Every structure is written in C-alpha cells, then in structure tokens.
User: Fold Enoyl-[acyl-carrier-protein] reductase [NADH], chloroplastic from Vigna radiata var. radiata.
Amino acid sequence: MATASFSGLQFSMSRSCIPSSQKIADASAVVLGGKSKIGSWNKLASACNVASVQPFQRGFTSSSIKSVKGVTKATSESSAESAVSGLPINLKGKRAFIAGVADDNGYGWAIAKSLAAAGAEILVGTWVPALNIFESSLRRGKFDGSRILPDGSMMEIAKVYPLDAVFDNPDEVPEDIKTNKRYAGSSKWTVQEVAESVKEDFGSIDILVHSLANGPEVTKPLLETSRNGYLAAISASSYSYVSLLKHFLPILNPGGSSISLTYIASERIIPGYGGGMSSAKAALESDTRVLAFEAGRKRKIRVNTISAGPLRSRAAKAIGFIDMMIDYSSANAPLQKELSAEEVGNAAAFLASPLASAITGTVLYVDNGLNAMGVGVDSPIFKDLDIPKDQH
Assistant:
C-alpha cells in the first residue's frame, strides 16, 4: 500500500516506507511520535505526513485478512446514559475506514482513537508488508496502553484489511510485487478490492481517512530528484487519495466525511522536505477542493484535509531533522508547545462530525498557528524587539 504518512513533515508509511511504488505504508501519516500513555492520552506524537523512507528491517509474510473481533465502544454504558452538556461530538452508529495504520505511533492511529472515543466503529487498512506484525502486536496486547480511551474503555478495531494504495486493481500489480515474499499469504489488497471487501463485510461506511504518503527520495533536494522518485511521491501521497475516494464513494453514506493529511510545505519552502513531497502535498490540497465539489454533488460527502505541524515519529526521524523542526515551531509559533497526535486526531473527529456539516474543501491547520507567521521571531534580527515568550 505503499502508504504511510509523514505528517508534521508528512512522510508515508509512517512506518510505511516504500522506496518505489511498492513502499508507502502509513503510518502515517509516516506518521507520529510520542506514545500515548495510560491515563494520559497526550503524547501520541505523529510526525511528518510522508511514508517512512526506510523499509521495515525484517521481512514479513503477510497473512490473509484477519478480523480483530469486537465493536468499538467509546463510552461506557453508564456514561452513555448520563446527560451530556455542551456540543459533544457524537459518532455513535458511524463506521470509519482509516487507510494508513501500521502501529500505534502515527496520525492514523491517533485519528482512529479520537473517532472511537466519539463512538465510531473502526476499520483500518494496513500496508501489506506490515500487516503481520501489526496484527500480531494487537493480539499480544502490545498496543493495549495506547488503546485506552478517555473514559477508560479500550479502542477496538472491528477489522484490519491489507492495503497497498499504490495499486488501484489487480491488473496493475507487477509480477515482482505479486511474487514478493512480503505480500505472500495476503490477497485482495488493491484499492478496488479493499473497497469491495469492506462493502461485502459491512455494507457501507460514513468516514474515510487517508493517512498515507511516501517519498522514496524525500531527503533529496528537488533539483536532484529523479522523475521516477517525483512521480512515486505523487502516486503514493496524492493520487492514492483520489483512488481511495473514487472506490469508496459508492459505499460512503450520504452526509459522510473524507479526510486526508497534508503539510505546510505545500505552500511554503521547507528545505530538507524534498523528493517531490512538497509538490505531492500541493496536489493533495488542490485535489481536496475539486473532490469536495465532485463528491459533494454526487453523494453529499464532505472532503477536507488537515495540515499538521511537525510531530515526532519514527517516520519523521527518517528524514533527519524532525527535532529541529519541532524546536523551530516551539520558538516561533503563536502557541509555544509541542503538538501532539491527539490534537490532530481530535480535529479529524470534529471534521467527521455533524458539528462540521457545512465545512468542505478546506485545509484545516493544526500546527499551533505556525502557518500564520511570516517570519521566524527567534532570529537574532529581532533580538531587540519585546516579543512575549512562554514562561511555562
């Protein structure tokens, strides 16, 4: 699925990495850092929305689709029965498919968790080579600490599907991928087949999340990026979203929501974020507007993207300068704090909820306001200005 996500700096397989059309898994995104802890669901740091550029170290033998039984229970019965004040985000009775979840360390996981906390049933798509280890970790309880929801219950994943979003249908899969041992044992993992499987298993969904990206040459300056590397970044990080929405649209219930992850490099220069990834994010944002019109007119589906700030994650670390980007954001953003994956997840839950019923075709910035800045106030040039600084 070559799909992962480096958000924050968006890379794919956030734990997804695919140096060619073969590596892109989420994760995310590449997706995110700091792990959430029991009783304190704050530090699920996600990172750049680009797939991890380094492939998994061990070879996996993908297993066939396995179901992690259990329906997501976001609230306990007692709390569900009690009166809720204010404007709660209520997604009970809704079903979400999140493409790009390969571990508990990325944007995809954080979004799944927030949607589950709001009551949604969770389905996930995991990059094929990462499927076996992801399902094994779930079974062995490795993610139990990260599965704890605010009310103390555990997030459940109704089903895990193998997915490689770089391929639309079986006819497009090259022979070397079909015979690759990392894909052995798994079937029906192209976008078209996954959409058909979800329809067969559940009938329909209400929320579609694209948390995938991959830039095999992300560490190269644009002037040194090859044509193949550039096109691979576009294919895995932007066209994969077009394909997902195209194939899932027929089973998305009217009034539903579709969300992707982008990064400020789409409109600002971020040295070091290369390989065509900035172009891929710009394309993703442009596509978001067009898809909002087309999906809105066809099935009343809202289409938005979240531009997340830099987050610490395994995928982001592969780029090499995530710590510097986080420090820069802390020094220059209006809100001087480190962004957490939970904040990105909560923004996604809002966009998927009835509270955002009139919001579509939008880029929502979740970056502590860094996007609004025109200069870096930590520059020596501004040393004599009386610029307020967070004292906490």
About this structure: The chain has one domain: 95-372. Residues 95-372 form a domain with the Rossmann fold fold (CATH 3.40.50.720).
